What we know:
Elements lengths: L14 E8 L3 E8 L2 E8 L9 H13 L9 E7 L2 E7 L6 H5 L6 H20 L2 E2 L8 E3 L5 E3 L6 E2 L19 H4 L8 H17 L9 H10 L10 H10 L11 H8 L22 H15 L4 E7 L5 H11 L5 E5 L9 H15 L3 H18 L1 H4 L4 H7 L1 H4 L9 H16 L2 E6 L6 H10 L8 E8 L12 E4 L5 H11 L7 H10 L4 H13 L3 E4 L2 E4 L1 H5 L7 H9 L4 H13 L2 E3 H6 L4 H13 L3 E4 L3 E4 L2 H8 L4 H17 L9 H12 L5 H17 L3 H14 L5 H13 L3 H13 L4 H17 L3 H14 L8 H21 L8 H23 L3 H18 L3 H16 L3 H18 L2 H17 L6 H10 L5 H18 L2 H12 L16 H9 L2 H14 L7 H18 L4 H13 L12 H15 L6 H18 L4 H17 L3 H18 L2 H17 L3 H18 L2 H11 L4 H4 L10 H18 L3 H16 L3 E7 L5 E8 L13 H10 L3 E3 ...
Parallel strand pairs: 10-13, 10-14, 11-12, 12-13, 35-36
Antiparallel strand pairs: 1-2, 2-3, 3-5, 4-5, 6-9, 7-8, 15-16, 17-19, 18-19, 20-21, 20-24, 22-23, 23-24, 25-26, 25-29, 27-28, 28-29, 30-32, 30-35, 31-32, 33-34
Helix pairs in contact: 3-5, 3-8, 5-7, 9-10, 12-16, 16-17, 18-19, 18-20, 22-26, 23-25, 23-26, 27-28, 28-29, 29-30, 29-31, 30-31, 31-32, 31-33, 32-33, 33-34, 33-36, 34-36, 35-37, 36-37, 36-38, 37-38, 38-39, 38-40, 39-40, 40-41, 41-42, 42-43, 42-44, 43-44, 44-45, 44-46, 45-46, 46-47, 46-48, 48-49, ...
GO biological process, one term: negative regulation of bacterial-type flagellum-dependent cell motility
Subcellular location: Membrane
GO molecular function, one term: ATP binding
Amino acid sequence: MVVTEIQAADLTGLVVGDELGRGAFTTVHRARRDHATYALKRPNPDNAADPGLLLAFHREAALLACVDDPSVPLILAAGRLGGAPAMVLEYIPGGSLADQLSHGPLPAERVVELAAQLARGLAAVHRVGLVHRDVKPGNIMMSPDGTAKLIDFGLALLGAEPETAQDRAVGTFLYTSPEQSGMLKRPVDGRSDLYSLGVVLFECLTGGVPFEADDVGQLLRLHLTAPVPEVTAGSPALAAVVVRLLAKDPDDRYPDAAALLAALRECPGGEVAAQAAVTRWPMCGRLTEREGLADRWRSARTGRGGVAVIRGPGGSGRTRLAEEAAALATDVPVLRAACQEDEALPLAPLRAAVEDYLQAVALLPADRRAEAEQRIREAATVAGPVLVARLTGRLGELLGDAARAGVEARDDHLFGAVATFLAELARNHHGLMLICDDAHWLDQGSRAVLARLLPELPRLPLLLVLTERDGSGIPTEAHADLELDCTPLDPAEVEALVASRLPGAIVPADLTAHVAARTDGSPLAVVTYLLRLLDAGLLTPLWGTWHFDLAGADALPAAEDVRALLASRLATLTDGDRDFLVTAAVVGPRFRTETLVAAGGEADAVVSAVAAAVERRVVEARPGGWFVFMHPLLREALLDGVGEERLRGLHAAIADALEGLPEHLRDADHVYAVARHHRRAGDAIAPDRRRRSALSAGLRALDDMAPAEAIGYLEDAFALDPSPSSAVLHPLALAYLRAARFAEAGTTLDTAMAGEPDRRVRAGLLTTRIELHHTVWDDQKALEAAGGALAELRRPLPRNPFGLVASTLGIGLAGGLVRRTGWGFGKAQGRRRDDLAALAAVLDAGGYAAAVGLRVREAGVLAMRAMYAVNRLGPCPEYVRVYCLVGYVAAVIKLRGTADRLFARAAAVAEQLGDPALTAYVEWMRGAAWLFGSHDGGTSFEEAITHNARWYGPAQLIPGFATIGIRMLLRGYIDQSQAEYERGLRWLSDPALVRGTSFGMLPVMIPAMQGRHGDAVAALADLRENLPWDTTPKVQLAHMLVANACALVEQGEFGEPFEALIAEWRGLGLRVREMMTQHKLFYAWQSHGRMAQLRMATEAQRPARLAAARAAVADLNRVRKATPILEAAYLIGEAAIAQMTGEPAKAVEWSDKAEHVARQADAPIIHFEVARFRARAFRQLGMVNESDRQARLAIALATHHGWESRRRQARAEFGAEDGAATNRHTAIERRGGRDRRLEALQQIGAAAATVLDPQELARVTLDEMLRILGAERALFFLLDDAGEPVQFAGRTAGGADLAETADYGSSLVRRVAADGEAVVVTGTEHGAALGSRSAVQHGLRSIMVVPVRFKGTLLGVVYLDSRLARGIFTEDDVEVLTSVTSHVAVSLETARAAQLHLAVRSAQQQQAFAEMLRASLAELSGIHNPAQLLRTLFGMLADHLDAAAGLLLSADGTMVMEATGKADPAVLGGPLPVPVVVGEEPALIDAPALAALLGGATAVLAVPLQHRDGRAGVALLGADAFGEGTAQVASALATQGMSAYLNACLFSRVQELATMDELTGQHNRRHFYAIAGALVEAAGRGERVLAAAMLDIDKFKNINDTYGHGVGDEVIRAVATRVRASIRHSDVLGRYGGEEFAVVLPDHEGEAEDLAERMRRAVGDEPIPTQAGALTVTISVGLAHLDPSDASLDQLLARADHALYGAKEGGRNRVVVS
Length: 1714
């Protein structure tokens, strides 16, 4: 801000006295005025002439005057005294706190009083935006009345000034916080002052500061790392306050001074902290609005909750008014949900609100905190702790085991659970306020929660406060019973607001009038403008009033005058100076004087011109000799009016100057600058020079991953080159490729190949062609190009398969040998290195293309053939890429461990190379490997794309967008899936390029899920047309077929097209291990379709379709573990089988399991399917109300998420309304439409329960319809095989049968039968318009025709008419009749199914037994812990055999390992009191004593758990009686279980071998790194002590050479055993390699050196017995303590290793500390 001159007030009447103190820049004197004594602050004489001091004094005085707190000295006046700046402050007689502390510590009660005073003072200081930055005893003055006052705000700043470095360390270091000293890289805020206050309080209590050191650096490190010494003086509560203030991390301190005051109130003498801190400015105006909020809150507290909406434009004070409402809720929870635009995380505002509330609870005193936490637990218990724990991690920790316990699946999902939690929280606290700020940005999840909460509000003590911008609309269709508008403040309110921000002095009227005139009455504008005046030094305190420089304020530019004001600075320059600045403006936004001189300027003149520009604030100096324009508008003003000819000449001169600059003056963008000036100079520069500079810039742009810029420069180079070579064409092709301009890339490569004779260059061109082909997913052409490139390099692939395999293995083994031995590793040089690099590039590109196309064999061959080349090259990009490729292949063929190691090696080399793009590539390849190898469902891939998108091109991004889009789609989030698809399209120049990819599935699947079947069919037709079956790779065909399956299922097409599709899929011949994760989705849609076919099957079709459905579920079972969606689909398939085979209860159980998976996966579409199957199952069970509720839930989900096909299918099947479930529709139905529908369903339901004859059931239905809907006639038609309607039943309103008749709307019936859409005719004319001659001929004035569907299939039509009046039927009646006809259809089909059920019941029982065994084995196979598996098998035996009690015995039958049911728990874990003899097979045994232990059972069954290697245990089961065949069931189940048990034992052993060093039994290196690395990270985060040691056996080679490797192994084992025995249980020991060990010592509490010495003595003090005799063995130990500079375990161990070498060089057998 520019002010020509500040009109400062003259400070008259002051008599200056003696000096009170002196600093580096200012001096303080005693002064008197009117018999009062003051402190006078003035600049030191050598600084007094500084023109900027007056502004600085004015700003400091004004800001401190705004503090207005007793703990900060009053600022009485500021202005000039004797022509120099001066400031008059309150004089504080008495000494400082430092003086008092020189006499010793203070009493604890006095410390609490001081802390409270200073906390209130700091709160007021922080309110004005100041941070003191120098709180220490010397800056705390003690007034005679005992009030502590903060002085010396010289270091305080308003916000973060631009000229202040963020890491500047200021203040006295004994009291300085870690972030203020720069040791902790965090912004300095008010919490830094709280840390300093903590040091002061520590000194007050103990007489000394917590950290002292002679060296400043050591002192700062102590502040950062050392634990706070114990505070023994004072109460534990006060000590805890001090310790918290001294937390290293600002987040661990009190959030503000107000929270500190609250903690002080709990200390002895805490009543002095009762006065609250002033943390907010008072609110001015809005009195009516505040009163309205207060009244509404009082009403809500009585249990009559509601919604208050606060509207207004930006800056109108909406949020401030909401905060005023929050201040009313003093004793109940207040949840503040701040909404953000485009928030990605569902429920993000509510999550943050709950998290903030929990953090506030954690700050409460112990008793109040415990009470609040208990209320939270109670609320969560009602809502479902497992669900609500998902809101925040802190809530999960609070709920503990309840949040992790397995609970029975329930219907209420996350949104409902959160709404319930909030409601219960309000009830438990008798009040709750939920504030949603900027509610127009509420995410959909939060809106769903509020929608569930709103109906309960009238009965809850909860007030929902929503703030929103004008015109945004109420976000949740909530009825607001209080609506407030934040209109502009009137003049009186502006005056009050100004006065509130300028306390302690009178505000002049001209200031208020000026502010009101310059602002629009919005509070934010008023406050912002006041700060502008303060910052300009135009407001200062002056003896009880505010001195206002009106002239200076009037001179402040308005926003629209900025450009004119800036341009006026140029008018003061001379013409010569301006010319030089024009040249500078042509150079760019920044320039050097050397460039201007080289462009033709005389050196002195250039320097003079730039100096003048700096003086006039046109440019400013920057480090490195650079100058920049102060504002872009200044540069634009200089260039205005400069002619084109002159501009070209200037560009040419500047280009010459830039090319002539010495190397050390050239900037990083030098190449671009030269090319840019050459381009703009045009013909003024020779074409050859322009071509060279354009080529250089284009190549640089390619390196900088800027393909669009590269294309511009390279096209220039191409145009200027009369005979362009590959040197231009190849990079241009690469640029086109990177920019997704694939056709141009291909054409350019063709041109380059045609004119290129060099074989190596041709190989490079073909390598780029490989990349081009795999980018557009044409892996076949990519492999052909790879073959051509290898031929150019004279390394063709052998055509003989045996030769190919043999040579590939040989090359791969040679590469492995190079890496393992180090012979030749990274040693290739010169031309040999270039050849190997070219070969590696070809093999990597070809292998990558094959891998992405899932041509695993080809990818493996090419990757293995690259191993030798990359190991000879050593660490380089090719090395990383090839190791990633081999890792990818390993993952796809299920070698997960090998893949992990390969990716880890690639990542390590990428990190070593310091190339973030390579690191991102490793993450992409790892994510792709886990996805395509079915190791996860795409989570890793999604994370890689999300975190590293800036490093990827279309080839990497498109599959990422496809993966995310498909995952979103399968979970039911269609809009998010559409967004990912559209993101991907933005990267494609031609969407046709990705037809055969997973991305190409989305344009079929998205519209299919949305119910836009025409679009889906068109997209699918496009795929089939352009992906011919004979020439398209299997992977791409699989993508197309999966999308086709989705489209057919969503359309409800389960006939011939569906069967043909399954036949096509089988014809592909893809094995499961060859499938990508998305391919396995086919089985989910196949299962869905088979279930639909089964539902629609006739009696004759049913056996075959049931078998097909079971086969589909079996197929799904094979791939179910690939993703949670497939797991849920499998469980739903089982539920469907159970429901349709007459086991509805079991169907509900399966659906419960599916719902559990859906909750974990956040998949609402699975919830929909679960609700739909539950509705069917509950209907079968006769639970009509529950069935209806589930149907409504399904329809509500489909409506909410936009699954149009599913919504229609559910409504057609169940006839339920979505309005009741979603609150989206409100229908006013005549005669109580909803009640009429329920009445009809009840009547029809009662009839269906008693009437079995289908025709009689039809008559009852028609009678009820005639009665309820008021029709005259009703006809029921069924469709024949040709689809023609045939009358099945007819009734009149008088209750008579209606024989076949022709006087009805037959054309309308046929129309409905054809298109399945209901028709309502509201008059004869309407009927005529619809083409019904019968309506006219027979005078039918009201007609309604509704289709009858069962499971999506049209079975018939119901027809009602009346001649009495028009408009009898409405659209609402269609829903009534649809509900009834659907119910009838189900009842008719149920009656038919009952006969079939009786026929197959026996077969079902057999199938149930087989299914039980299969499901049990599946569950057991997923358990890899042998002990856990035995317990699970024992539980299964007890459950499936209906045992009342059971005991699981050890293998020898003597110990009791587990008890269940009524078994005596006293025997658990001890010996079995009664001996038992068990045979080889399950059998009933006669053992009365055992029966007593089994709860008095009269029958005891002994089941030996026998496997091929022996016995794992014995299960004793007790019951009143066991049924026939029980022993056979037990035997089958035990046999299956023991098979799984052996697999678990094998897995457990493999896991042990994978983590343990076989020789020593200690952690191997990999496992040691995993554990120790986590400890190091935790210690670094928590600032805990930790040390690491490296151990090496002294002269071990001599032992091996003298006694042999066998004795050497004995020595290594003994050393490991002794070291392990000498250290603590918490210490981690690992074999590092050979005779070297590593140890990490966490939380050693200063004993690290002792532990190291103990290890050394444990080995060396006693000889080690070996087969060669006792040998004296010693070790050397290097020890290093964790330092803040240690970024990882590797760095810490490296320092320990360095110390180890010191121990070796120092004579061995010793400990050396780093």
